[in-house]
Amino acid sequence: MTQLESALKGIVTPEMSAVAADEGHTPEDIRRLVAQGVVVIPANVNHKGLKPRGIGAGLTIKVNANIGTSYDRVNVDEEMDKLQVAVEAGADAFMDLSTGGDIADVRRRLLAASDLPMGTVPIYQAVIEVVQKHGGIVNLTADHLFDVIERQAEEGVDFVTVHCGVTQETLKRLKNQGRETDIVSRGGAFLTTWMLYHKKENPLYEQYDRLLDIARKYDLTLSLGDGLRPGCIADATDRAQVQELIFLGELSDAARQAGVQVMIEGPGHVPLNQIETNIQLEKKLCGGAPFYVLGPLVTDVASGYDHIACAIGGTLAGLAGADFLCYVTPAEHLKLPSVQDVRDGVIASKIAAHAADVARGHPQALARDLAMARARKRLDWDEQIRLSVDPINAAACRRESYPEEEDVCTMCGPYCAIKLVKEYFGEKK
Amino acid sequence: MTQLESALKGIVTPEMSAVAADEGHTPEDIRRLVAQGVVVIPANVNHKGLKPRGIGAGLTIKVNANIGTSYDRVNVDEEMDKLQVAVEAGADAFMDLSTGGDIADVRRRLLAASDLPMGTVPIYQAVIEVVQKHGGIVNLTADHLFDVIERQAEEGVDFVTVHCGVTQETLKRLKNQGRETDIVSRGGAFLTTWMLYHKKENPLYEQYDRLLDIARKYDLTLSLGDGLRPGCIADATDRAQVQELIFLGELSDAARQAGVQVMIEGPGHVPLNQIETNIQLEKKLCGGAPFYVLGPLVTDVASGYDHIACAIGGTLAGLAGADFLCYVTPAEHLKLPSVQDVRDGVIASKIAAHAADVARGHPQALARDLAMARARKRLDWDEQIRLSVDPINAAACRRESYPEEEDVCTMCGPYCAIKLVKEYFGEKK
Asked: Looking at the structure, do residues B383 and B355 belong to the same domain, yes or no?
């Protein structure tokens, strides 16, 4: 049985209990949220050693790190290092997006190397196998695509991005409207190329039941991909994007009716003033399914610092109700991320997730900030370092610039405001 | 005559014309906005070589970089380097917050080294002179403080932070309420120490007319400081903060009546869900005076990455109507910033300012993002690098990871989505 099927039958699974313990909820609370389809616990029945995480309403916001090889850069050890730093920096899940080298081997090594839920985009492997054997994306067959999905599910992958909403109807909306950057999703582009060439419907839409059968068998959580996510500010919240989201809403209903856990992927490049609208639309059109957002990036020009543009958009998205933030690294739009880029990306998204949890009034998040405030008031530097988002970096900053009076820092030295007024004000009443 | 006095008499100054040209407005528009007190042009009559910048309603959001020596770190060359990188990274103004070494000498060298408007916090120099000569902050006199302000004004300083709203009444509100981190503003802490020791009113409040006389003489813009800004999330938007803001509203009225340009400084640590409220309060209580915000920082635990917490808060503040963002560097809460910290801080705040301009629909900001989107569609890498927030860094990223096919990047290589679907979709209709 999937987590959803169990929840609907009133059964509290060990995974639900584990999530409840982490989040400060009762197991029954988690069961109810999973049954409603507003929380998912990506936990493939074949994934040994998984520590389950819950994603969705009422829980802390989770962060995903995308890693994996590319055509131009295949270094499996480096990918293993990226996973390691992502875990250390606090990622709650990761996706292997490998498109270079022995993709299946990379995936198996990554899956075995941590206790995090792991996601993939199976069409990458399917397309690359087809390109290598038959020389072109258009030679992809539906059977081959579903075969790859099943192979990955059998190995223990916990969630898969499937661009089921890229339909002939969606593409018609896109063509009628026109766009600045058309399609920037790789999976979306693969399917579109195939669909326009063959003048056929997307097999992931047309044979959605086949996908649901595989997903139910392994409790593979479907992450319904946004193949038409906007690739620039000008394209945000346009008819093509909203049309796809309407399809994803229908497909999320069908998944839940089949006992399959489902979440929805969201944009992309979105100006700050449209983020709340995007979250409300997803929650309404998709029956409250957990929303997994990429960014959103609040400007197109932050190349080299897209982790910051992502953190800005992610925080407001989180406040508005997004549940799962996919990081973007400083390297986005420029290159495959390095190990350091992965680390910087996870930390920026962890700041966003935490700041949104604070704004949503999550008790655990507020308690951590309050503990930091009190450590500052006490001029307790060890505790300040321990509580910071990256204690290793905070400790290094302090070490490299040590003050004469050790209870302050080199910004203000003896003119430290907190130290000056300490005697005049007591503890908070 | 000050810019405000000229504007009220219907005179368009060269400074107004310069701002108009930069911002795509007519000179008469700028005159009207200055006359209304919703735009300031900090431009001391004695500041030679200044390129005036406008701050306020209808203009692009500006970014300030704080630099300067501290008790523990006095290296004037390093401060000159910080100014240089701040200018290169796009800062629109800077403040010299030096508290170490020969403060007056550092200030004069910094003032001469760029065409940016420069701000200071004169009470720093006054207190440090008193501490050095007389051994304690409590020996500060009102005459000495006003003397320092006048000396700095005469030298050409364009704007000064003056904590005029730290009154006995404000401190009573603070004491009655209690707080987690009391006072975290250095200027606020100096004045509070003096006021509580002497049981006297703040001279900057009691003798505000004296301040206005100096400001009018040199067209020194007053930046009414928030001495009681919240130092942690738990203290945000509390009675002490709002009480001070009410006083600042009254004082901003008085300044404008005296022909003195004025802006208001704001918090501090504020959770994302309270930022819009803070901006609306300032605009309402202070008659639309330009709002100069420090951060706001949306969490207390981002030590080492406070430039990101600042960019998150600054973007939402900008969307809600903030006019002037004071950067926060990664070093905040830990140490005096290095040259690299200053660079990282300015860039993060420039991203915030630009993203907020995009969200506010500013034509120049939208045009830049659109140009980037089109460069991406064309796979035009030179133009993408030129348009990014930090072209030097973007070019370095690309150089260090070069793809086999030179029209793509190493993230996707030949599987580049834009390249794949290019043939199927034309230019936007």
From this structure: no
Q: Where are the alpha helices (DSSP H) in B199-238?
A: 203-206, 208-218
* CB within 8 Å: B273 and A319: yes
Same structural domain for residues A323 and A406?
no
Residue B429 inside a domain? The answer is: no
Q: Which two tokens stand for residue B202?
A: 């703040």
- Cross-chain Cβ contact B70/A300 below 8 Å: no
Instruction: Report how many Cβ contacts below 8 Å link chain A to chain B.
Output: 386
Query: How far off is chain B from A259, nearest CA to CA, in Å?
Result: 33
Residue B249: CATH number of its domain: 3.20.20.540
Q: Hey, is the C-beta of A8 within 8 angstroms of any chain B C-beta?
A: no
Q: Report yes or no on B123 lying in a domain.
A: yes
Same-domain status, A20 and A46 = no
Q: How confident is the model at residue A425, as a pLDDT? A: 76
Backbone angles phi, psi at A289, to 5 degrees: -60, 145
Q: Are residues B373 and B357 in the same domain?
A: no
Hey, are the CB atoms on B273 and A360 less than 8 Å from each other? yes
A345 touches chain B (CB under 8 A): no
- How close A48 gets to chain B, by Cα (Å)? 30
Is A185's Cβ below 8 Å from some Cβ in B? yes
Pick the range with the lowest mean pLDDT from A183-197, A301-315, B225-239, B411-425.
B411-425
Residues of B in contact with A429 (CB under 8 A): 177-178
Instruction: Round to whole Å and give the CA distance between B327 and B294.
Output: 7
* Per-residue CA distances from A20 to A54, B184, B334, B365 (Å): 8, 38, 36, 45
Judged by a CB distance cut-off of 8 A, whether residue B335 touches chain A is yes
- Helix intervals (H) in A89-141: 103-112, 122-134
Instruction: Please report, to the nearest 10 degrees, the dihedral formed by the alpha carbons of residues A372, A378, A380, A386 taken in order.
Output: -10
Q: Which residues in A371-424 belong to E strands, given as ranges?
A: none
Given the DSSP bridges, would you call strands B39-40 and A93-96 parallel, antiparallel or unpaired?
Answer: unpaired
Nearest CA in chain B to A306: B351
Of A343, A361, A379, which residue is a domain's last? A361
User: What confidence tens digit (pLDDT) does each residue in A361-412 have?
Assistant: 999 999 999 999 999 999 999 999 999 999 999 999 999 999 999 899 999 9
Question: Is B386 within 8 Å of chain A by CB?
Answer: no
- The beta-carbon neighbor of A72 closest among B174, B393, B404 is B404
Looking at residue A422, its amino acid is K
Supply the pLDDT for residue A429.
46
- Hey, is the C-beta of B103 within 8 angstroms of any chain A C-beta? no
Q: Is B428's CB within 8 Å of A180's CB?
A: yes
Categorize the per-residue pLDDT at A427 as very low, low, confident or very high, splitting at 50, 70 and 90.
low
Within this chain, do residues B369 and B355 fall inside the same structural domain, yes or no? no
Q: Do B421 and A387 touch (CB under 8 A)?
A: no
Same domain? For A10 and A112 the reply is: no
Contact A158, B350 (CB under 8 A): no
Closest to A258 measured CA to CA, from A220, A227, A225: A220
A145 belongs to a structural domain: yes
Q: Is A132 on the interface with B (CB under 8 A)?
A: no
Mean pLDDT of A177-188: 95
B394: containing domain: 364-424
Domain boundary among B361, B387, B405: B361
Whether residues A287 and A351 fall in one domain = yes
A429 lies in a domain?
A: no
Judged by a CB distance cut-off of 8 A, whether residue B170 touches chain A is no
A394/B303 touch (CB, cutoff 8 Å), yes or no: yes
The mean pLDDT of chain A is: 96
- State the residue for tokens 């998944």: A255
Q: From the first residue on, what is the mean pLDDT of each consecutive set of 10 residues in chain B (429 residues)? A: 98 98 97 98 98 97 98 96 98 97 97 98 97 92 98 98 98 95 96 96 98 98 97 97 98 98 97 98 98 97 98 98 98 96 98 98 97 96 97 94 92 92 68
Number of domains in chain A: 3
- Choose the closest CB to A370 out of B128, B180, B412: B180
Contact B207, B150 (CB under 8 A): no
Whether residues A208 and A306 share a domain: the answer is: yes
